[in-house]
Amino acid sequence: MKPIRLMRSFLTVGGWTMASRILGFVRDILILALLGTGPLYEAYVVAFRLPNMFRRFFAEGAFNMAFVPMFSKKFEGKEDPLGFAREAFAGLTMVLIALTLLAQLIMPWLIWGLASGFAGQEQFALSVEFGRIAFPYILFISLAALLSGVLNATGRFAAAAAAPVLLNILLVSAISLAYWLGLDVARALIWAIPVAGIAQLVLVWVAAARAGFPLTLQRPRWSPEMKRLITIAIPAALAGGVVQVNLLVGQQVASYFDRAVGWLFAADRLYQLPLGVVGIAIGIVLLPDLSRRLKADDEAGSRTALSRAAEISLALTIPCAIALVVIPMPLVSVLFERGATTADDSAAIAVAVAIYGLGLPAFVVQKILQPLFFAREDTKTPFRYALWAMFVNAVVAIGLAPLIGWVAPAIATTLAAWVMVALLYKGTRPMGYVAKFDERLRRRLPRICLASAIMGGTLWALTIALGPALGTDGWRYLALALLIFGGAAVYFASGHIIGAFKLSDFRRAARRA
């Protein structure tokens, strides 16, 4: 087999994801500055989360967790991968069109199911209006995700990774143009969402066609391969549903506390930066690589790929988690506190950021362990584990809310993530040698933790030293940059000295990319 160059592919996906997340920060900064955390912002959050929630079923979630391994093996074995992709594309299109039409009819009930605390308030009518406009995004982005799966399975990651950048470019452009022209910023933002979905679909469709996989619409056909795809996808969809239930429970609890939906969403955007750049990127690259190696009976290569994916992910994730826990207030206040977003908003968002930071390594480790199951077309085991995580999430979020208030969903999300990791790790034990991390990772992981702790102490000291500058409008951006780059320099220097990693590894990987 022709192996996927893991590190180069990871840097490609991670680089484009970083660009997308930075633009996403620009988008969120503009939205919070212009809308604040009031009714318009909360309606936008719910409306945008609605298609994204269903996307987890039909796009990079359930459907692709079943589609990518099957397609990867057909591609490796030269078993008509184009025909299989066309059948899947047709079937997914039919389901998505039906879902989009149904959602338009039952939108008020969908919004009530997402945020019943909005009932009788201004946010509810706005959420229904915005939801109807934004929901068709699921049709375009889910088909784009299938095409991205085709590209990823063939080792072509750039176009699929670049597609999300279009979303944020178009949303930032719509917000800016509406503000300059004196138009309704909130509605310009919502209308830009389905337009961005079309742009993303066009980009990856062209890339797939150039790669030799022109997917055209055809009549859906119930073939044995589609039957097997659906059989594998249903447990994955249920597992994805469990994850969405966790989000739904958190949002429902938050909707009963003033501004809490907006606070949690803003905090989510901050911790999603390292999660997207590291965790999601490595998961995207690792799944097709493991699937193709499994088809080729390459156990040694599979173990090496898994260990190097875990090593680079944890080397980048653990220090990010420490930073989110140690300096959440400087991060939030500098990035978000302006215009309609107040110091009280920043304080609340910072609390949630610190809690999510404690769960960040768990979210990333999930992305490393799940491909071990999905590459074997085993979606039932992760589903069972997700049910346990859902139970923990619901009990903690609902049980703690009367005692500690709106922050309970953040605690529940973090705790459920660690429960999921423990179950996944236990579930990989019967897989034997191929699922065990190698000696190099076991040797380096404690040193990565030590280097991260050294960095955390440095960040704490720098925060005290730079405190006045962080609170001054003219200097806070420079102070935050010094804080971040100072912490990063200490981490990489100490990590290199104590043997957590070699800086030459990162330089070689960057050159290959």
The chain-level structural class is mainly alpha
Beta-strand proportion: under 5%
Write the element-wise H/E pattern from the N-terminal end onward: HHHHHHHHHHHHHHHHHHHH
User: What ranges have pLDDT less than 50 throughout 5 or more consecutive residues?
Assistant: 509-513
Largest sheet: none
Share of residues in helices:
over 70%
Query: Quick check: average pLDDT?
Result: 81
Number of strands: 0
Could you tell me the radius of gyration in angstroms? 22 Å
Per DSSP, the total helix count is 20
Amino-to-carboxy terminus distance: 21 Å
Number of domains: 1
Shape: globular
What is the quaternary state of this protein?
single chain
Q: Could you please describe the fold and organization of this structure?
A:
- This protein has one domain.
- Helices cover 83% and strands 0% of the residues.
- The protein contains 20 helices and no strands.
- It has helices at 6-35, 39-58, 62-77, 81-105, 107-114, 122-134, 137-153, 158-181, 185-210, 224-254, 260-295, 299-326, 328-336, 343-374, 380-404, 408-428, 439-465, 467-470, 476-498, 503-512.
- Helix 3 (62-77) runs antiparallel to helix 4, helix 7 (137-153) runs parallel beside helix 9 (185-210) and helix 8 packs antiparallel against helix 9.
- The protein is globular and about 65 Å long.
Topology, pairings included?
Blueprint (H helix, E strand, L loop, with lengths): L5 H30 L3 H20 L3 H16 L3 H25 L1 H8 L7 H13 L2 H17 L4 H24 L3 H26 L13 H31 L5 H36 L3 H28 L1 H9 L6 H32 L5 H25 L3 H21 L10 H27 L1 H4 L5 H23 L4 H10 L1
Structure characteristics:
single chain; 20 helices; mainly alpha
